[in-house]
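ingest -> validate -> predict -> emit
validate: passed (alphabet ok, no gaps, 382 aa)
predict: started
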Amino acid sequence: MSKNIRFVQGNEACVEGAIYAGIDFFAGYPITPSTEIAELLSARLPEKGGKFIQMEDEIASMCAIIGASLTGKKVMTATSGPGFSLKQEAIGYACMAEIPCVIANVQRGGPSTGNPTHVSQGDINQARWGTHGDHAIIALTASNHQDVFTMTVDAFNMAETYRTPVVLLFDEAVGHMREKLIIPEQGELEIVDRLRTSLGKGVDYHPYLPREDGRLPMSDFGGEHRYNVTGLFHDMWGFPSNNPSVVNELLKHLVDKIENNVHAITRYKEHFMEGAEYVLISYGSSARSAIHLAKSRRAKGEKIGVLELQSIWPFPTELVREKCEHAKAILVVEMNMGQVTAQVKASVRKPNRVFLANRIDGHLITPSDIKKLLRVIQGRGV
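emit:
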């Protein structure tokens, strides 16, 4: 059987992953450097019977996919920095109302308008804490197009499994560069479909009553069951409540359904990690430079390895601690002022051995940039 091989941009790999996962509906607003996702889906979605709509702004786009998801559709939107900021209130609504949806954020320089056409990884903490209040979130990323495809499929699967928004945190370099993508045959990757209630029409339906396995069956809004959807704290029928026990139980559920499944959600790759004395932790396009450096230095006998994170939130604390337990030093390679570095320092037993190798000027961090810091650390005898 011949393979379906493409030469594509990262944004196009995201589109192919969404189609593979069964996307039905996309609403968005053009914004650099994510625009190709909307452009391509505007053509591809109607071909498979799906719906595409360009909304008047990013706020409306997020609200549109929330509405479409409630009616039973697999949904997605795509944006970049300023647009991601505008979506935050509706993302919080989706968290509270437990509405499955996928948000692709192809990161660019910020804050504000920043560097629209340049690379950055500055939205890591915003993905976690951008919307107010206690909540949990899932955020995935990738450094190459094959993994962009896979992480996009995983994002849809996780959104449906945990009834939650899932953020795809790509970056401009990955989004715009081109490389080979092999599209798997249908059935090669698992696809999680919407868990719908088995209750028939006229039977009392509790939209927020979880099963023993923790999943909440949904009923397509406007279909056989009438139920309430609100951003307020609510009971199992969906009606607002300020009862302390109801509020406490719901808030714990919203957090625990994700934080208690860190092992199931965690995605990562190891490169040259066997016996590594120096561990580079990285993600997105930065990981490509880290892997290149580790490969070249390993060839010269230096024990350098790379732990590539593909799930950023919930942060894989135990994984990082375990993989870095015996490292002399840990270098976090990222294009921001240390957003993942802070998480790594909080995870390991010797945070003083954690160093930041970064760039914040809108340009890719290079193997040479990393090597300079590594040489300084090794010179200190660390």
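Residues 269-377 form a domain with the Rossmann fold fold (CATH 3.40.50.920).
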